[in-house]
Amino acid sequence: MTRPRARHASVSGVTILALALGCVLAVTARSSATTGPAPGISRELARERARSIEHVRYELAFELTPGMTQAEGRVRLSFEVRGGAAPLVLDFGGDALTFAELDGAELDPAAIRVADHLVPRPRPLAPGAHVFRARFRAPVAPAGAPLTVFRDDASGAEYHYTLLVPADAHRLFPCFDQPDIKARFVLELTAPAAWTLVANQPPQGEPVVRPDGRVVQRFDETPPLPTYLFAFAAGPFAVVEAPAQPGAPPTRVLVRPAKLGSLASQRLIRMHHDASAALARYFDVPYPFAKLDAVLLPSFPYGGMEHAGAIFYREDSLVFDHHPTDLEDANRSTLVYHEVSHQWFGNLVTMEWFDDLWLKEGFANLMAYRLLDELEPGRQAWLRFHQRLKQRAYRIDVTPGTTPIWQELRNLADAKSAYGEIVYDKAPAVLRELSSRLGDDVFRGGLTRYLRGHAWANARWKDLVGAWSAAGADGLDVWSRNWVLRGGLPTVRATWSLDEGGRVRTFHVEQRASGVGGAPTWPLDLTLLVAAPDGRRREVAVRCDGPSAAVPELVGEPAPAWVLPNPSDSAYARFVLDERSAAALLDALPGLDAPLLRAVAFSALWETVRDADLDPARFGATALTLLATERFAGSRAQIVAALTTTIERYLDAESATRLRRALLAALTGALERGELEGLELDTFRAIVRLARDPADVAWITAVLDGTHPITGLELGARDRFEALAPLLAAGEPSAAARLDTLRRERAAEDGAWYAYAVGAAVGSAETKERYFAGYLNANEPPEAWAEDSLEFFHWPGQEALTAPYLPRALDSLGWVKEHRKIFFLPAWIDAFVNGESSPETLAAVDGFLASHPNFEADVRRKVLQSRDSLARAVKIRAKRWPL
Ligand SMILES: [Zn+2]
């Protein structure tokens, strides 16, 4: 699974991401007689069932009808009992159970429902084969349901799709909803004849046409799959087909017909084929499934979800109505490569429990960048890895809200909280470091053993460690203890002193724990890049396994001009600069020629700012200079994001206005002079985010109206909507009429969605109240709309309107966790906690934490993660810098 992508660079010190978690367990006890199993799926229940249940097979049938609010379904579930000591417990949280039968004996459906479960018989079943049959109804809604419907305003068409990760399959049908009871699925869908139906496996023969004109389509039986990977989708899709290629499966792309013209379908098919073939070679394990479909779904809550043989994607991650920017293009590639990697890591071999979520997500992200490096050379894969993944990981891992990569999980009802930067960003970073330490042969050899040894079954991270050991690795105990089982990371800096002659007297590398407690140090192998005053540079290797390590090679040398730790970005730690190096690198940075080195130095300076050890105004001046010549899109995004955060959060009002105007002048000037070929759209988006003054708003208006044309700038529909945000926020008189017109003109291009999102920027109390109420409505608007609007709700300069919502936002955390999908909760917390930078906001957050000491630990951690950037902003603003 992949998070939705933020369209704008990080603006608050924390990337604005969406989050959406699944579902709510309806916890009303429907049966009175028995105390029964607890809500959700507990570890104990899962263990007991995994021990006693095997050979599970579901025959499922669903009726799909336009306009439905419930789906009718039936299931025939066959399984074998190995001899368990506990009663049979199934999971079901759908709307209604209308018929149930166990081994041919009919049951009272109401009597067997207990919380989220079905207990068909209170005593243990006899060993051997059993069959449970049921008919049921499950909810269908634009949001908050296991079967989601998207209603296309323009065409009136409906698209239905399942999204059951991490444990929502039981909200759709009765099942054993845990990843380590893999089952074979046979699916039958009944639907209008005009709809294309897609499932994990190919259709089994031609559909049968019923007398009412509807069709019944069966699909081939799946190989063993966990419930969270079962999926289907239905709707009047356009379909592009491609046959199998050597090493790659047959592939179809399904998309709304209106988007077909903008879809680079052949490129998309080639990416899926190339990735499949490359991964089959790398893992030395063939592609595991019969086919690979890519289903593009509007307002899908994640970037993608790796259902076995049928990846579901968020349509706007893959289809662009404009020439995609370099960042959009690269993100599209890593998204596809991520999801294809899951077909091995996660789908062929599945985690036993969601505490090992990091295995599949960490590997999928590592492989995504490996494939970008291999299949699209020249895309600077590892520079992007540094700029996107590692920066996000550091930002969370430095906080007291961080967790180990492996996260204990007592109940699947809390599994959504395991998703986040630690599994998506830290896990691939430490895996990459491990792969360079073990060498590619051992690393790959272990992966092949692991995938072959556990194919079609489940495994734990210790199985992978065992596979690497068998392939020749050693020292993995220490690695596991420090990087898998322990949260946090070291902050590392070099310190040195000089003698009277100006030569190095002492030189050390020091590390201290950032964020969480526990042992203060990590075993670290790193390099230092040491620049002499004459400009010559040398690299020195240092092993730092304790709080401090001496670097004798440098003693007696002339004083360095600057020292930069980890110049090639191989180590995982937070690197900050000593005072002397920070000052020198502010000047030297624009002259560093290698893009990765420049980015690493920039990141180290930025971390030093975030530690309140470097004047943000001085940093801002250097960043502005750097931007003038930087032409790599990822690096420009990193610089613009840091500058935007500096302006919005770290500087006093007067300095912020000065820097914002200087940045806007630099961006608009470079655009108008035609200096930014290929970067025009990124630059325009940055301008939109920064515009406040009437002159800037007028500039945007003129560009939108075409009275001020910019060569090379091609705006998509969504950009036209989002460009209205500064107009709406400023109360520009034409703004509301422009939004209305655009919504009408662009109705076929998701105008209603984009208009909803950007409309949150209107600076009135009534508007904010209306949006806030919508956020706490489970079924409308679609979750992607709500999520996309959070950024506009918190439009900069509207703190007086939005800050008062913080207490209500915090009080709603339980509801949000329960009703929204995986990435909504962190986005929610971050929007409200990090939308402001004032001591009052910090005090309100701390007051909430103090008055809710026993608040759900997973949610509390997310609050602590967002609080960190807020606290840094407050500290930096309070500091007085020497002139
Ligand atoms: Zn994933």
Largest sheet: 12 strands, mixed
Number of strands: 29
Alpha carbon gyration radius: 28 Å
Which structural class fits the helix and strand makeup?
A: alpha+beta
> How would you describe the shape?
globular
- What does the average pLDDT come to? 93
Query: Which residues sit in consecutive blocks of at least 5 with pLDDT less than 50?
Result: 9-34
Number of helices: 31
Strand content: 15-25%
Q: What hetero molecules are in the model? A: zinc ion
Share of helical residues: 40-55%
- The termini sit apart by 49 Å
Provide a compact summary of the structure.
By secondary structure, this protein is an alpha+beta fold.
Overview of this structure, please?
A hairpin with an 8-residue loop joins strand 16 and strand 17. The longest helix has 22 residues. Strands 1, 2, 4, 5, 8, 9, 10, 11, 12, 13, 14 and 15 form a 12-stranded mixed sheet that branches. The chain is built from 31 helices and 29 strands. With 883 residues, it is of the alpha+beta class. Helix 7 crosses helix 9, helix 8 runs parallel beside helix 14 and helix 22 packs antiparallel against helix 23. 41% of the residues lie in helices and 18% in strands. The structure holds zinc ion (ZN). The site of zinc ion has 7 residues, from helix 6 and helix 7.
